[in-house]
Amino acid sequence: MRNWLPAVLASLMVAGVVSCVKAQLVAPGGAPADAAQKFIDELVAEDFAKAAASFDQTMAAAMPADKLGQTWQAVVGQLGPYQESVSAKCSKQQGFDVVTVNCQFKRDLIGIKVVLNAQGQISGLWFVPPDRSDDYQPPAYIRADAFRETEVKIGTGEWALPGTLSMPAGDGPFPAVVLVHGSGPQDRDETIGPNKPFRDLAGGLASRGIAVLRYEKRSKVYGAKLIQHQDGLTVKQETIDDALAAVALLRQTKGVDPARVFVVGHSLGAMLAPRIAAADPKLAGIVIMAGPTRPFEDVAAEQLDYVAAVRGNLSPAEKQEFDKLKAQLVRVKDPNLEADAKPGELLFYAPVSYWLDLRGYKPATVAAGLNLPMLVLQGGRDYQVTRADFAGWQQALGDRKNVTLKLYDNLNHLFAAGQGMATPDEYGHPMHIAPEVIGDIATWVAAQPK
């Protein structure tokens, strides 16, 4: 998604649970927002030894003072000097206090997300797009009187997730779609800066007579908890299991036609849509929006190169982080990776288990083995998932009568319109999914046989 700098780029591209920096910060007696700001103040003062002195044993090993300093310097090198903390938003999630502090740097605004446990210790730290939840203005194609929204729960037990069901007005039964996120700890709107592409999709499709279910990603709601199990983490736990639970919920929902439930995946969610469909043969079809067909590590390396080229001259801290990440992506391909992996080892912010699970996975090949309708969409200005990936879908599925492939020359990774060379800064400006994309998905879903 949006790319702040090489280090943060990885945290937004790869699984959110593994993108976080596990830390402990003792802040007895202080309010969560105060504890978060205290930690930020120590970073701004470059008193990394003081900050690191508050870490527990796990953090002391994973993020010693010098590494914490390198991470902060990389942020400052990309965004310029820290100026002020603009706002803080607090919430309670599974017994943890979650504080997102919007911090203004010279060149941009970012969010520093701090998760505190019941003892006032920090159990998670992320550099994320700023919280701009109040900035959203719906596009013209969303008709508020055409649908209603209700809160729902996805799944049961320890990984249950909050979600929103957008149901068209009327009795139905309506076709329905589940929206499956891209990488990172995404919320139900897939919020990126001031943009909410999943909210666009939900409102746009529901306005056209399609029920839409979207939900908070597991790595957003349970990020701190997932850290404890990160050595065995795969895309199954991160994405697939919850998508299947959402599909099951839709089939049981009054007003939904259980025989016409589809999955709409974006980015990582699109790459995994064939695996989701393979696990649920009753799906009516899948929509693939900007889905990689090449190995994930190759796509990640290409993104790093692109962002570095757009950025221009990297600072020494950025260059060091860039080289480290590129080396880790090379190691992902090591045939001896499984045998040589160290306990707790992370590669490009993901555990070894994550990469081993994706090794050999060819999304287009899996899709070609499925006998169900598919709609494959690609933005021509997308630098994160490119025309090379779209060509992979074309090669595997181009002769299938029940597959439709479409390229939009002027759209970016968020399927929003623009001109010229796409850049990471583009995601910082308000934009919406293009109306033709909403129309194409709605028309395709409606055309599928009952």
Let me know the largest β-sheet. Answer: 8 strands, mixed
**CATH fold label of the largest domain:** Rossmann fold
Share of helical residues: 25-40%
Please state the overall shape, judged from the principal axes of the Cα atoms: globular
* % residues in beta strands: 15-25%
How many domains make up the 3D coordinates? 2
Poorly predicted tracts of residues: 1-30
CATH superfamily of the largest domain: Alpha/Beta hydrolase fold, catalytic domain
Q: What structural category characterises the helix and strand content? A: alpha/beta
Q: Over the alpha carbons, how many angstroms does the gyration radius reach?
A: 21 Å
Structural commentary:
By secondary structure, the protein is of the alpha/beta class. The chain folds into two domains: 6-131, Roll (Nuclear Transport Factor 2, Chain: A), CATH 3.10.450.590; 135-293 and 362-447, Rossmann fold (3-Layer(aba) Sandwich), CATH 3.40.50. Helices cover 38% and strands 22% of the residues. The protein contains 18 helices and 14 strands. The strands form three sheets. It has an eight-stranded mixed sheet with strand order 5-6-8-7-9-10-13-14, with helices on both faces. It has a four-stranded antiparallel sheet with strand order 1-2-3-4. A two-stranded antiparallel ribbon has the order 11-12. β3 and β4 (122-128) form a beta hairpin. α1 packs antiparallel against α12 (296-311) and α10 (235-251) crosses α11. It is globular, with a radius of gyration of 21 Å. The protein starts with 5 loop residues before the first helix and ends with a helix. 53% of the residues are buried. The model is unreliable at 1-30 (pLDDT under 50).
